[in-house]
Prior knowledge:
Number of strands: 5
Amino acid sequence: SSGINAEYGGLLQHKIDKGILDPEKITMFDLVSQQIVKMPNDYTGIKLDIQGISMFESKVNIEVSMACERTIDAIERNGGTVLTRWYSEAQLADMREGRTPSQEVVLPPTQLVHKYLDPELCGYIIGREYLYFRNLDKA
């Protein structure tokens, strides 16, 4: 899957600083449409990885397909949140084509459900309320 590396992390910070992106809610579509990341042609989505997080100075609330625990911890230390969410093939195709994807929430394949139920990986199936309180506990 595609990740946000240091170069893209700096670009994300730049777009936040210029007011192009709202750090209160950054979605995968924002990352793709602002050319911060390229959506891979396969059916994977975007994984947020630790390499780009060192470039963030902002508190960000970001939604991506996957994120590693170290990156989640780094974002939460700055007061931000991460939400990992499964996207359908059609939603990812829309993003690749520059179209806003439907907001329909879809369940991941059975073999991946555990990742989206895992509070340490900020999975969307556990709910935003849990993630909000998790972040308060770390502050």
